[in-house]
């Protein structure tokens, strides 16, 4: 095999936190993930500039009216005042509309961009290998596609562009100040230098603080979701107090982290005011000194003092936006972190091979598998299953038999060796074709909070009700369906919990049957069903499996008895294979032992 | 709920009511942050005063005389910097105070909401998806207390506004009244805003919950999605909701986008009116130019408080919606009432009496009907029945995960509904069909925080046949199992779950097909261990055992078998008796042997294997 396909040595694919992505990098990459954010940005910027003009309309109008309308040379001039008022009102309307249009555009582009990001991240979670998905708790994953994304929105609407405008205003104020007096402009900049320099320090602190906050939100949701999902255990063991203590701990940790971040924000924001005070004093003092040298007049110094406020306003707004930005960036990072997590089980996509329909032959070639950092679970497995055969895999719990199912269905890739279907390495088969041809029915079949019909349609999207009923009939489940409160329209509850474990397995089987696979992998799929029904289903499955290949992982040897061939796994190795009757006769063998205890259980 | 949704004034009032809750809860920190805000406002004014003072007393004299004392320069520096530092203190007090208040309220509400999650009955949980509950505890709580952040600023600037308005009246009554027309306009804009925003905001929070629901469920079922290749369809399902949320957010954004500039523009337009009226009043001699200027200037000052109050009001619709959603959880009824009876003591088995028990999910379709049976202390009863015959439901009634519609469950003479909280769990342990493990260590999963020594944990694991694989884990009892115990196989999870029950030495143990994922050999050993382990209790008779079983080896443990059919006890007796007289029972339990396909295999039935 080629080295490029070698998975990482210790399979260290955990979900990326994104916390080591720099702030600018986050924004840059965030924008590239959501190209909508750039749409119409120039127009929006123009509107922002126009909107900011609005702030000076009223002061100018007041000043003009005073000078020329009220205190005009020939006494108060009514028509001038009225016209000035009308002009100013029009100005206010225009700039207000510009502000409305700008914010609307920002809301539109950012919500669109973030919806794209949310959906991409959601999809990527599903594209990640099972093992990687399991490295992050569900609650935390949910926070990444919900509240983390929400944090970014505020910043994009009320921050990003305003920051650009603020920087522009600072530059304009600086140019005007330079025009009046370069020396005083220098003084102002010197007074603000400590603020600008300390910004980096505070940004780092804030970045850490907000990263902690976002992480704590994830932990909080995990701490809440676990006991909610396991409510029955919490209830029946009366461990509410202990569970609440754990949740409270997460709540407090989030509170502490948020308060800490807020402290940094408040402190960093207040620094701007101190710099402004310094700058005002500096301008007056240096102004007097410059006045002595004859470089500047008293009026110019005072005018300059007003210019400083034009400089201070946007600087303070800018720092405020920067501090708030860290919260958004912390959330953004976590979403981008998902997208950065490599989907090591790469779908070859359009280049992938497409399996022909019809029974599949399966080969394991020197397959070894180990969980990340663990000892090998399967070793030196070389095995061929001819197309159309029914194979049973048996072995003690923990012998590695479920691993077979996961490798066959490419939930995991082998650490070494390869699994071939119809002679093609599973890693080279397109995901779509693989999922169409190979279906796994796991022991604990997860159901979605919907009707049985909706759940069964996960196997075949367009299955009609008649089709589903026919399928149930074929599997011998018609009586069961008829006995349900609302038949196929019965709601199964969250995770299918309104049904018993056995019934959930029945729905999962029905789903798999409708999916019409060429290779069916059953991992103890009927373990929770009553014996009579299990046998009935077993017989139905045997009929249905003609013309397909099936691999059944079973601990009830009744299943093994019906298989064409039995493979016995012990401690990660295949130790026996052959027909039930042959294996059973091998005195002292693993299979004979399993069979003895099975019989002992049944024979009373 | 919802009755005031379309009423803007109602929603403003509701918004203030939500804030009032927070202020009553945190009066001191609220006062502190408001004082900070007032300090900030006062010092902003002081800044202008310092500039004026410096101009009059230092700058102008210095330019006139050509000299300046060092003391004057120091005074300028000290005044400006002093004011700036005090103002910074005001900012920190205001912002940090508001933050502390906001996060305290969030934490308090989250504790209350999650307490409610833990105390509401299973029946409530079945109706509320996990994702929605996460959204209630996270996004809705955040929304509810959102207005706390702009609150101190708004309150602080009210003083500024009152002073400015007072001065306006002193300057010119008529012009002041003209200027004050701004206020009804502000109120009108606010009412329109609240009206428009409320409905969409309600929808947005609802959609947030739905997005969270889909995400949680879909990630929970990731394996099914993957194995059936349904990623595109799941993504489409999520995208549909995410896009709906996007569209609603854009609508909310449009409304917000109009509200902010409208509020900002109103005082400006007021100023223009004042000027226009002012000119005519000056002409008629009713006012002098100075008064007009004063009123106009004061009105521009008022624009700042109006804006900051606008930020507050802007948060109201979302806050009111979030608070209502949270309140709905907090007010949810149906909490299971507990009695005050203590658990009966002792270590020996408990007596179980079930009397006329009935339960249904859907009216007219009883799941269980008129079940009556008793289990003597130390005895074992097997519940046998086809899939969906009501066995699991019965186990949830026995452990009071749900209450029956009729009849009662009595343990040691006490109706389980009369027991004080936690008392039933002290006597009865249930091992459910599907093991649920926490993201914790093996030890934590077994003890669940109970004070149990490692020796007892190992003993419980030994009986559950889990000691071998746990010992083989690198960290042994300290090994973490991952969320839902994903690092273990189904059979291993069941054994941990069984050990969790055994370590408590329950006086009544209920096993709901708890060894279905365990292979027969191990199962045989577990059953043998249970038999001897339970009997080895202190008393003459060991724990009472109720076991849902399919396999004959398990059934054979029982002193009595109850055969359930369609939610009723169809027959009862010993296994042998039922086998002999009840053909449907025999068909059920003998299924593995009767399989016609394999009946022809030589030696079937195992008679020759056992050596």
From TrEMBL, chain A:
It comes from the Bacteria. Residues 45-327 form the ABC transmembrane type-1 domain. It is found in: Cell membrane. This is ABC-type multidrug transport system, ATPase and permease component. It comes from Nocardioides psychrotolerans. The lineage of its organism: Bacteria, Bacillati, Actinomycetota, Actinomycetes, Propionibacteriales. One of its GO terms (molecular function) is ATP hydrolysis activity. Belongs to the ABC transporter superfamily. Lipid exporter (TC 3.A.1.106) family. Keywords: ATP-binding, Cell membrane, Membrane, Nucleotide-binding, Transmembrane, Transmembrane helix, Transport. Residues 362-596 form the ABC transporter domain. The chain crosses the membrane at residues 44-62, 82-102, 155-180, 186-202, 264-290, 296-317. The keyword Isomerase does not apply. PANTHER family: ATP-BINDING CASSETTE SUB-FAMILY B MEMBER 10, MITOCHONDRIAL, ATP-DEPENDENT PERMEASE MDL1, MITOCHONDRIAL. It is a multi-pass membrane protein.
UniProtKB/TrEMBL annotation, chain B:
The keyword Transmembrane helix applies. It comes from the Bacteria. One of its GO terms (molecular function) is ATPase-coupled lipid transmembrane transporter activity. SMART domains: AAA. It is found in: Cell membrane. Residues 32-318 form the ABC transmembrane type-1 domain. One of its GO terms (cellular component) is plasma membrane. Keywords: ATP-binding, Cell membrane, Membrane, Nucleotide-binding, Transmembrane, Transmembrane helix, Transport. Residues 352-591 form the ABC transporter domain. It is a multi-pass membrane protein. Pfam families: ABC_membrane (PF00664), ABC_tran (PF00005). The keyword Hydrolase does not apply. The chain crosses the membrane at residues 28-50, 70-93, 148-167, 173-193, 263-283, 295-314. Belongs to the ABC transporter superfamily. Lipid exporter (TC 3.A.1.106) family. This is ABC-type multidrug transport system, ATPase and permease component.
């Amino acid at each position: 095999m080629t080295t490029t396909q070698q998975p990482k040595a210790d399979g260290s694919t955990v979900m990326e936190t994104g916390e080591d992505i720099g702030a600018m990098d986050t924004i840059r990459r965030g924008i590239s993930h959501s190209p909508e954010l750039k749409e119409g940005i120039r127009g929006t910027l123009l509107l922002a500039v126009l909107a900011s003009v609005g702030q000076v309309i009223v002061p100018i109008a007041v000043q003009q009216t005073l000078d020329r309308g009220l205190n005009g040379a020939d006494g108060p001039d009514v028509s001038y005042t009225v016209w000035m008022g009308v002009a100013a009102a029009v100005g206010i309307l225009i700039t207000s509309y510009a502000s409305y249009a700008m914010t609307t555009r920002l809301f539109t582009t950012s919500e669109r961009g973030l919806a794209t990001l949310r959906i991409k991240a959601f999809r990527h979670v599903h594209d990640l290998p099972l093992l990687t998905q399991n490295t992050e708790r569900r609650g935390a994953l949910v926070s990444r596609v919900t509240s983390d994304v929400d944090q970014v929105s505020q910043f994009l609407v009320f921050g990003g562009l305003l920051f650009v405008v603020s920087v522009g205003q600072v530059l304009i104020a600086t140019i005007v100040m330079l025009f009046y007096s370069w020396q005083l402009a220098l003084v102002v900049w010197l007074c603000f230098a400590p603020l600008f320099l300390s910004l980096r320090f505070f940004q780092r602190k804030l970045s850490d603080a907000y990263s902690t906050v976002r992480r704590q939100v994830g932990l909080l949701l995990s701490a809440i979701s676990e006991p909610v999902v396991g409510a029955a255990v919490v209830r029946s063991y009366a461990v509410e107090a202990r569970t609440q203590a754990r949740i409270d701990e997460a709540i407090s940790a989030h509170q502490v982290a948020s308060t800490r971040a807020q402290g940094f924000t408040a402190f960093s924001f207040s620094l701007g005011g101190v710099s402004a005070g310094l700058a005002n004093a500096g301008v007056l003092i240096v102004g007097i000194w410059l006045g002595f040298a004859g470089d500047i007049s008293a009026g110019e110094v005072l005018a300059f003092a007003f210019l400083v406020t034009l400089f201070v306003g946007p600087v303070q707004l800018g720092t405020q936006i920067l501090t708030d930005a860290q919260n958004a960036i912390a959330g953004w990072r976590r979403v981008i972190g998902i997208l950065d997590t490599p989907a090591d089980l790469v779908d070859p996509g359009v280049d992938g091979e497409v399996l022909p329909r019809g029974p599949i032959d399966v080969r394991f070639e020197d397959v070894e598998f180990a969980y990340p950092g663990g000892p090998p679970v399967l070793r030196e497995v070389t095995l061929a299953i001819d197309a159309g055969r029914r194979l049973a895999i048996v072995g003690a719990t923990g012998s590695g038999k479920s691993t077979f199912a996961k490798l066959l269905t490419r939930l995991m890739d082998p650490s070494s060796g390869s699994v071939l279907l119809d002679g093609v390495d599973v890693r080279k088969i397109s995901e779509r074709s693989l999922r169409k041809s190979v279906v796994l029915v796991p022991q604990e079949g997860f159901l979605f909070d919907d009707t049985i019909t909706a759940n069964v349609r996960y196997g075949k999207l367009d299955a009609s009700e008649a089709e589903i009923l026919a399928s149930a009939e074929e599997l011998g489940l018609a009586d069961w369906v008829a006995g349900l409160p609302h038949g196929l329209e019965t709601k199964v509850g969250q995770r299918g919990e309104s049904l018993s474990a056995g019934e959930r397995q029945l729905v999962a089987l029905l789903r798999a049957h409708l999916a019409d696979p060429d290779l069916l992998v059953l991992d103890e799929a009927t373990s929770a069903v009553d014996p009579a029904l299990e046998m009935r289903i077993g017989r139905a499955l045997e009929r249905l499996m003609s013309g397909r290949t099936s691999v059944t992982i079973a601990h009830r040897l009744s299943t093994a008895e019906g298989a064409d061939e039995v493979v016995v796994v012990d401690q990660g190795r295949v130790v026996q294979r052959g027909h039930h009757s042959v294996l059973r006769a091998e005195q002292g063998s693993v299979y004979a032992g399993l069979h003895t205890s099975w019989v002992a259980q049944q024979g009373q | 709920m919802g009755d005031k949704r379309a009423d803007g004034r109602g929603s403003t009032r509701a918004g203030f009511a939500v804030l009032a809750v927070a202020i009553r809860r945190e009066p001191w920190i609220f006062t502190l942050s408001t004082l900070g805000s007032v300090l900030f406002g006062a010092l902003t004014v002081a800044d202008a005063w310092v500039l004026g003072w410096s101009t009059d007393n230092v700058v102008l004299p210095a330019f006139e005389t050509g000299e300046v004392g060092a003391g004057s320069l120091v005074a300028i520096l000290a005044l400006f910097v002093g004011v700036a530092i005090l103002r910074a203190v005001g900012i920190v007090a205001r912002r940090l105070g508001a933050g502390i208040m906001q996060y305290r309220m969030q934490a308090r509400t989250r504790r209350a909401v999650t307490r409610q999650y833990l105390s509401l009955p299973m029946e409530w949980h079945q109706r509320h998806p996990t994702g929605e509950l996460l959204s209630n505890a996270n996004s809705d709580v955040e929304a509810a207390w959102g207005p706390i952040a702009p609150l101190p600023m708004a309150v602080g600037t009210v003083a500024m506004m009152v002073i400015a308005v007072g001065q306006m009246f002193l300057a010119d009554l008529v012009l002041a009244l003209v200027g004050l027309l701004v206020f009804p306009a502000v109120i009108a804009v606010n009412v329109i805003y609240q009206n428009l925003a409320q409905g969409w905001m309600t929808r947005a929070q609802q959609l947030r919950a739905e997005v969270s629901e889909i995400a949680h469920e879909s990630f929970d079922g990731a394996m099914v999605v993957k194995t059936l290749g349904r990623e595109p369809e799941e993504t489409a399902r999520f995208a549909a909701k995410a896009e709906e949320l996007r569209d609603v957010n854009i609508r909310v954004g449009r409304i917000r986008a109009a509200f902010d500039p409208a509020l900002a523009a109103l005082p400006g337009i007021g100023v223009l009116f004042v000027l226009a009226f002012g000119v005519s009043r000056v002409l008629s001699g009713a006012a002098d130019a100075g008064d007009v200027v004063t009123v106009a200037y004061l009105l521009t000052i008022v624009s700042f408080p109006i804006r900051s109050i606008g930020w507050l009001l802007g948060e109201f619709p979302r806050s009111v919606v979030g608070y209502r959603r949270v309140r709905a959880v907090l007010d949810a009824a149906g909490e299971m009432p507990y009695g005050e009876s203590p658990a009966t003591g002792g270590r020996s088995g408990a007596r179980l009496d079930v009397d006329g028990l009935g339960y249904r999910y859907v009216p007219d379709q009883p799941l269980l009907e008129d079940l009556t049976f008793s289990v003597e202390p130390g005895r074992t009863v097997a519940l046998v029945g086809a899939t969906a015959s009501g066995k699991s439901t019965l186990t949830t009634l026995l452990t009071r995960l749900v209450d029956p519609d009729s009849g009662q469950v009595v343990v040691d003479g006490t109706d389980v509904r009369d027991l004080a909280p936690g008392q039933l769990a002290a006597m009865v342990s249930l091992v459910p069909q599907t093991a649920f493990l926490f993201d914790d260590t093996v030890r934590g999963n077994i003890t669940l925080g109970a004070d149990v020594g490692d020796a007892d944990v190992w003993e419980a694991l030994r009986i559950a046949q889990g000691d071998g694989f746990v010992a083989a884990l690198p960290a042994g009892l300290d090994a973490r199992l991952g969320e839902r115990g994903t690092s273990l196989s189904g059979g291993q999870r069941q054994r941990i779950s069984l050990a969790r029950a055994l370590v408590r030495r329950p006086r009544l143990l209920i096993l709901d097909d708890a060894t279905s994922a365990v292979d027969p050999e191990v199962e045989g050993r577990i059953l043998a261990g249970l038999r001897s382990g339970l009997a080895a209790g202190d008393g003459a008779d060991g724990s009472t055992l109720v076991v849902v079983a399919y396999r004959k080896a398990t059934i054979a443990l029982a002193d009595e078998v109850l055969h359930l059919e369609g939610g009723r006890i169809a027959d009862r007796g010993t296994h042998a008796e039922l086998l002999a007289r009840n053909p449907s029972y025999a068909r059920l339990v003998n299924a593995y042997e009767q399989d016609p396909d394999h009946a022809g295999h030589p030696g079937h039935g195992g008679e020759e294997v056992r050596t």
